[in-house]
């Protein structure tokens, strides 16, 4: 008997010796390790490109350095056009779509594509972040790892959440915030079954980061200013400000993307977007790249270093000019970031959100301190809490925002002001716009996974799995006699779709509709199908109706069977009994994750 392949022998051994639960723990550790490696690799490649550009004498950082993003975008354009032949996808929206409609299956190419396109974009000065691409690469690794070991859809979804937690844990060295991010953004249930794998992945990833990068932290400062109760009202003001800034950030994002849709050529988008970014960078250099240096300088109280060299250097001794420049960064960071995306760049929105929030928080503190009313607040604290407010508002991730800043500061001294500002920002943004940059497209289609179990189960269900096609079709012009001999006699169903020569559904006939006349032979040749047919209670549109809509149509119509059409043509029926059976099966699978 021939020997079985090694991988098959491993699968058999694993099934016999390792339970599904313990194997999930092992996979989550591997995912955390690989996600950490992806994040470290991404960071190192980007910093290598930035260092190389800094050392080139031909480029002058103070004069024409702002031209570099155009070269980076052009390199991304060439890579995607001639190598991958795929457009750049926005990381997290793409992952959310794969989770809801592709069973968490992600192409292998998504492992390495972000590791190339993101460093080219950010390394050359594109005003976006690296977190999104790190999550994209880690998620692709986890998805393909799950596919390799034949795990089910629920475990694959959990592993993708582990990859997201691992990426954040590696970049920020904040494992608790990483776990919460996976729960808030990917709508994972915070149960013991999901918490322990997330914890294992987060720890494995942060250890990987420490191993390769040591104690190097993105934010270097000494926290010394404690919360004072007299500043409470000012934190409320900051929370309100970040709430409205979050609305502006989101609306500006979609406005600019819609503006660039009018240009069909990717090259034209690159040229227009590249020039726009160059102009913004000339007047506001801190918009260059991710912006961690900008944040660190603000936290250190050195706003001049944060602003860098600008055309307004001669006026920097005037604090109101500094405030105006910081307002400019607050306003234009969202524009520069979205323009980078629209021009074909790859990156994430998480870190640009932090940059914008830090600038806004610092502005609010400076205004309070320089109004001449005798108030004095901590600019460092307001800078930190401004970041949290924007994260909570833009991403709808309030707990992530609170714990991220708490871990960055190394304690919970700012917990109360964080809760004040974050809750205000989240409430204002959530009431104004119920979706985020990540979720808008899926939410509008009803394809977004949420913490609502009923909604998520319906989203995960496939209409194809419940469509039945074993119905005898009738032509509207045939007689009652032909219908009985060619239809009723040969069918096991009591429902008959009436379809014309163009395959369009023109009506239905139930066996009950002809029961009283089916034995009256005098009507066999004089009565046509079109005389007996009637409209169905409702119709399911294959392309536009979500499973939630399908369920609602059954509820509203009280029907047991509804026809399905696609491009105006009949393709089958969905029965309520089969739909509910599929729903119960999916619910069981979903809740046993």
UniProtKB/TrEMBL annotation:
Residues 467-526, 533-591 form the CBS domain. It comes from Olleya sediminilitoris. The lineage of its organism: Bacteria, Pseudomonadati, Bacteroidota, Flavobacteriia, Flavobacteriales. PROSITE patterns: CBS. Keywords: CBS domain, Chloride, Chloride channel, Ion channel, Ion transport, Membrane, Transmembrane, Transmembrane helix, Transport. This is Chloride channel protein. Pfam families: CBS, Voltage_CLC. The keyword Nucleotidyltransferase does not apply. It comes from the Bacteria. The chain crosses the membrane at residues 23-42, 62-80, 111-138, 158-183, 190-213, 233-255, 267-288, 319-343, 349-369, 381-405, 411-428. It is a multi-pass membrane protein. The keyword Transport applies. It is found in: Membrane.
């Amino acid at each position: 008997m021939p020997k079985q392949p090694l991988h098959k022998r491993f699968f058999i051994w694993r099934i016999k010796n390792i339970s599904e639960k313990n194997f999930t723990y092992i996979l989550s550790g591997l995912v955390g390790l690989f996600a950490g490696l992806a994040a470290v690799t991404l960071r190192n490649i980007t910093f290598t490109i930035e260092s190389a550009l800094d050392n080139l004498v031909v480029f002058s950082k103070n004069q024409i350095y702002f031209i570099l993003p155009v070269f980076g975008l052009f390199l991304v354009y060439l890579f995607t056009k001639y190598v991958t032949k795929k457009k750049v996808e926005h990381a997290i929206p793409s992952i959310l779509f794969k989770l809801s409609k592709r069973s968490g299956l992600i192409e292998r190419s998504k492992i390495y594509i972000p590791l190339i396109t993101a460093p080219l974009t950010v390394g050359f000065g594109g005003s976006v972040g690296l977190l999104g691409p790190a999550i994209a690469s880690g998620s692709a690794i986890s998805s393909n790892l799950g596919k390799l070991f034949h795990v089910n859809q629920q475990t694959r979804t959990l592993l993708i959440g582990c990859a997201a937690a691992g990426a954040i844990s590696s970049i920020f060295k904040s494992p608790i915030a990483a776990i919460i991010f996976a729960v808030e953004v990917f709508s994972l249930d915070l149960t013991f079954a999901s918490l322990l794998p997330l914890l294992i992945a987060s720890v494995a990833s942060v250890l990987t980061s420490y191993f390769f990068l040591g104690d190097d932290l993105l934010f270097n400062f000494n926290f010394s200013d404690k919360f004072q109760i007299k500043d409470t009202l000012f934190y409320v003001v900051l929370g309100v400000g970040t709430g409205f800034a979050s609305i502006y950030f989101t609306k500006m994002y979609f406005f600019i993307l819609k503006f660039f849709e009018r240009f069909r050529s990717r090259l034209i988008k690159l040229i227009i977007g590249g020039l726009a970014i160059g102009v913004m960078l000339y007047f506001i250099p801190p918009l260059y790249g991710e912006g961690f240096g900008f944040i660190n300088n603000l936290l250190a109280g050195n706003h001049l270093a944060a602003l860098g060299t600008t055309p307004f250097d001669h006026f920097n001794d005037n604090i109101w000019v500094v405030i105006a420049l910081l307002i400019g960064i607050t306003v234009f960071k969202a524009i520069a970031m979205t323009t980078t995306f629209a021009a074909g760049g790859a990156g994430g929105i998480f870190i640009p959100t932090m940059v914008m929030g830090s600038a806004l928080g610092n502005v609010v503190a400076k205004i309070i301190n320089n109004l001449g009313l005798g108030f004095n607040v901590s600019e460092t604290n307001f800078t930190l809490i401004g970041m949290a407010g924007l994260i909570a508002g833009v991403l709808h991730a309030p707990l992530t925002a609170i714990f991220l800043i708490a871990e960055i500061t190394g304690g919970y001294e700012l917990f109360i002001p964080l809760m004040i500002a974050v809750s205000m920002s989240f409430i204002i943004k959530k009431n104004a716009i119920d979706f985020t940059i990540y979720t808008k497209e899926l939410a509008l289609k009803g394809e977004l996974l949420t913490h609502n179990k009923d909604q998520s189960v319906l989203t995960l269900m496939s209409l194809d799995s419940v469509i039945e096609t074993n119905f005898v079709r009738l032509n509207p012009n045939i007689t009652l006699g032909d219908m009985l001999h060619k239809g009723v006699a040969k069918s096991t169903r009591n429902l008959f779709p009436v379809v014309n020569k163009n395959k369009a559904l023109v009506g239905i006939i139930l066996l009950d509709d002809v029961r009283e006349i089916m034995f009256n032979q005098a009507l066999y040749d004089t009565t046509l199908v079109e005389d007996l047919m009637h409209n169905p209670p409702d119709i399911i549109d294959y392309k536009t109706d979500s499973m939630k809509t399908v369920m609602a149509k059954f509820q509203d119509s009280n029907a047991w069977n509804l026809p399905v059409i696609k491009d105006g043509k009949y393709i089958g029926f969905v029965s309520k009994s089969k739909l509910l059976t599929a729903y119960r099966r999916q619910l069981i699978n979903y809740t046993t994750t």
